[in-house]
């Protein structure tokens, strides 16, 4: 029997509680991660008491489609009330919207003014009495999230300001924290105290991360409650060294979930082959998951099925509404790699396909999402209150300056989806984004783009494999670079 150990976590009024966690004995990397997370000290959580504590779950009324009426934008709620037996349009049929085909060329480049945008929110731009971000959710059913997080941004009210303007969640990753921690002095006091109290640089890192995640989650908690648990999430990623370690990922997810101790946290797990069974396992244990680094439709289907399997194996009561998940489908990185290969081919047909693959692939992933939600296997779970695993469009900042700055937002708008936007893209859409359902306007056109890309000699399976390897390596490098910097700083701070 595995030995037991404890991790101390913050609770209401900063009261520490002890949670017993079995010590894994199978893997050296996992043992190291467990040891590090156990050193995370109790963190202040005064705001949690005012919000009603860090535990608990939310129930909701389920429909025949498995989607919560309380989480629908207003126009979807009224439509359902007028026809209670109807399945919401997001699942039943595509929109009749006549927006431009995915196979048509991107529109002319937008103005470059947003490129130098700072993290502070711009002056309010509204449509009627609502901002464009609020309209995006209320009219089209898409939740705009922010793909960034830093301690100063939370402390100075910047995060709350964007929530008030319509942002409904936050994603983070090792690269974001590497930039935040190494680029400011906001973490120096806590880091110095941790080092002087005997923490290692890596243990101190997790303490810094957990505190930021907790503080952001507390800011989002009212939205989480108001939305019935549909939005108001903040994501924190498992250690990048565990991307190819199933059991290590499971153990790390458990520890992070308990260390953060908030109901609106998503634990991010990469969609590697090793990550797929880990997703099912942690969902079955009641841990909500943001599945990251999805680069192909085939892998997306595996991710959807892993979520379903986890719900089917859920070890709690019969109410599945307390569990949640998003599937993060990466977009702009696909175009960056495919465009490079199209340029190398150089034929007129190949060159005409530049800037089209990523959007087409995401649109086909959404089409698959609707089909999977109509299957009897999902419907059985929906009857128990299960929430759909919303597709989340990630990597939505343009990397080619010739493309419009809102290209990967305007073309991927549709119900029951999330788009997580980096700072500049968020502000660009807030300023001049187009609010119109486009995600399923031309599925046949999207299929034609993918077929044409394959026809000119590009293997999208090969592209996906390469991007997954690069994504895992990039997060690992950010983590390693930050550890090196923190270790060097720690030597100077030791008493």
Automatic annotation (TrEMBL):
Enzyme class: transferase
Region called Disordered, residue ranges: 74-125
Compositional bias annotation for Low complexity: 82-103, 111-123
GO MF, one annotated term: transaldolase activity
One GO BP annotation of this record: response to glucose
Keyword flag Ligase: no
NCBIfam families per UniProt: PRK03343.1, tal_mycobact
The name this protein goes by in its record: Transaldolase
UniProt source species: Chara braunii
